[in-house]
């Protein structure tokens, strides 16, 4: 048993989570880790994965029955995916010093069931272990199944990817262009410098949604309309894309970060629904856990694409932020302020 | 050649079409029918089908490239599906007196290519020939392919149908409950009397969307959530249904009549898009012409269901309005004012 700092849920967020003051979303506390029983391990968190989906678990308006992962109870450490080191093991499968991927919480130390830990496999080419949280973790798998299975992108398709400079989007762009070989891949991102980076990953072009010409730029870039739209953002960009879908177009609905921090009445409404009917568009909401039985197969494809230099997962595709434990919620908040590029990871 | 009255497009509609005055959408004119050449026939219109999709062809905002049937040019007779009688034939396949289904216009007489005419097949049980425009025409086929193929409704499913007292909706309710045998079929309609009629067709219950308790009624009626939503209306009802979809729910997007007569900025926005992601919902826009190769197969199923008394297509499922030719646009407008029940047909 050790003393551990934890960031726990203090008050659900109705809009953008609040870091300080009387309405602060999280509180920093000190607690006992507890001691591992048989089959359990004591872990020390090394890296936290920062994911938009975490926002939903602390939302003030969402009903529990409508979430695939339940709401976080107030007082509990914020749920997070992490890379951790085994400090003490009461399980045969793990020993002190092993590095694992694990669902834990914003806690320096924690006792968890050993079965919830997956030992990190060695990566080729001296790639950073942090890729287990990103390009070779849930992020890469989300991109893989989303573009291949949900959107069914093929060589002849014009593909648009929003949030293209984000963790998932930057993988989708590469998979669509370099692995599937789609005819045209168009990224959408929030600044010119992000757009240039997305183009360096292989996008034929990338459009800045903060440009005043964005809508016209999109029309110009899609004279043959759009067969596949991989949607990471929802809101106004989605609404605009509905007017550019080709007949029988497919939309993979992966995220709606635009709306994560809006209370009900401020949500940006979708006004072009009718285009779904006239163009016979198909939309599928999905989550990566639907494909859990095929993770190994997908990881082999991703790893081969890295070795073949089709998939660039160098340090630019990650945004690793060094921080003290006090900084954990603040670093996570970068997801929602548009300053982030690639997979955002907190290094403790 | 004969003299014929025609209703032609005068001025595109930006909101609800206008019947009279300086901004009238249509104009009544007199014209020559023209004389049939070889392979053509002169037809006399007997019945017009009234369809919400006609609204799109005279819309002021829609771009041509986004319609599967092109916009109607100004000055042309309003396009309409009809039952007509052959008055004069220059084609081997048709003779004077034959009754046909045909895409024509709001015109008393017209010359058309004989290949565009389909001779009416005899119906069992002395059913009215007008069913060729409704339950046994595009309406019934839309319902059939929408509920079976697009929404993939099965016995275990809870099904919700909006516009349930409309032409398509009233067929969907019957197919879902009586032919597929779905566990629960819930209709949505605009008055208590319509709701009682929908229940008489087999719906387990039907909810009045004009009731002040509608949202709560829907929650109460769907404790296990909704597997299939057949959407004929779009707008606020669709938005509400998104909050009631079960995991892996399917939405057949058939119509959005709520928005047909709203100019761009007044369109009712969809705010609950995020539910599509959290519940992994699938949405498919469709139109019946995608299934043209299977029309015969479907009609056989529909006819057998009529003979087996599973499908009630008596006079109540049609709303045949006797009218003079001057009344044609006014009768069509009943589609948009909520006074109509079942398939709206104009009898000249």
UniProtKB/TrEMBL annotation, chains A, B:
Positions of the Enoyl reductase (ER) domain: 21-307
Pfam families, per database record: ADH_N_2 (PF16884), ADH_zinc_N (PF00107)
Organism listed in the record: Aspergillus caelatus
Name of the molecule in the record: Enoyl reductase (ER) domain-containing protein
UniProt GO MF annotations: oxidoreductase activity, acting on the CH-CH group of donors, NAD or NADP as acceptor
Alphabetized UniProt keyword annotations: Oxidoreductase
Matches recorded under PANTHER family: ENOYL REDUCTASE (ER) DOMAIN-CONTAINING PROTEIN, PROSTAGLANDIN REDUCTASE
Keyword set includes Nucleus: no
Domain of life the protein comes from: Eukaryota
UniProt cross-references to InterPro entries, sorted A to Z: ADH-like_C (IPR013149), ADH_N_2 (IPR041694), ER (IPR020843), GroES-like_sf (IPR011032), MDR_fam (IPR045010), NAD(P)-bd_dom_sf (IPR036291)
């Amino acid at each position: 048993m050790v003393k551990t700092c934890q960031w726990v849920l203090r008050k659900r967020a109705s809009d953008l989570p609040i870091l300080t003051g009387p309405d602060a979303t999280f509180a920093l506390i000190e607690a006992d880790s507890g001691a591992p029983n048989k089959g359990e391990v004591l872990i020390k968190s090394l890296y936290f994965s920062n994911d938009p989906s975490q926002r939903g678990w602390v939302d003030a308006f969402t009903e529990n029955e409508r979430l695939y992962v339940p709401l976080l109870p107030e007082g509990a450490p914020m749920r997070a995916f992490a890379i951790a080191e085994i400090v003490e093991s009461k399980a045969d499968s793990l020993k002190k010093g092993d590095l694992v991927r694990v669902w834990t919480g914003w806690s320096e130390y924690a006792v968890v069931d050993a079965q919830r830990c997956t030992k990190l496999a060695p990566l080729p080419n001296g790639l950073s272990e942090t890729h287990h949280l990103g390009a070779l973790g849930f992020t890469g798998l989300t991109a893989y199944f989303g573009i291949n299975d949900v959107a069914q992108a093929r060589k002849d398709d014009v593909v648009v990817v929003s949030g293209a400079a984000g963790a998932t989007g930057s993988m989708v762009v590469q998979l669509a262009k370099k692995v599937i070989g789609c005819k045209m891949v168009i990224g959408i991102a929030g600044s010119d410098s992000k757009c240039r980076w997305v183009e360096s990953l292989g996008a034929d072009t990338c459009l800045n949604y903060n440009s005043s010409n964005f809508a016209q730029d999109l029309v110009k870039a899609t004279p043959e309309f759009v067969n596949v739209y991989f949607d990471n953002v929802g809101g106004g960009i989605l609404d605009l894309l509905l007017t550019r879908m080709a007949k029988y177009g497919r939309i993979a609905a992966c995220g709606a970060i635009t709306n994560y921090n809006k209370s009900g009445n401020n949500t940006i409404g979708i006004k072009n629904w009718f285009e779904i009917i006239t163009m016979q568009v198909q939309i599928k909401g999905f989550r990566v856990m639907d494909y859990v039985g095929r993770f190994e197969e997908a990881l082999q494809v991703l790893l081969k694409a890295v070795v073949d230099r089709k998939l660039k997962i160098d340090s630019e595709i990650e945004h690793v932020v060094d921080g003290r434990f006090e900084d954990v919620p603040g670093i996570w908040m970068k997801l929602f302020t548009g300053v982030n590029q690639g997979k955002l990871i907190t290094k403790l």
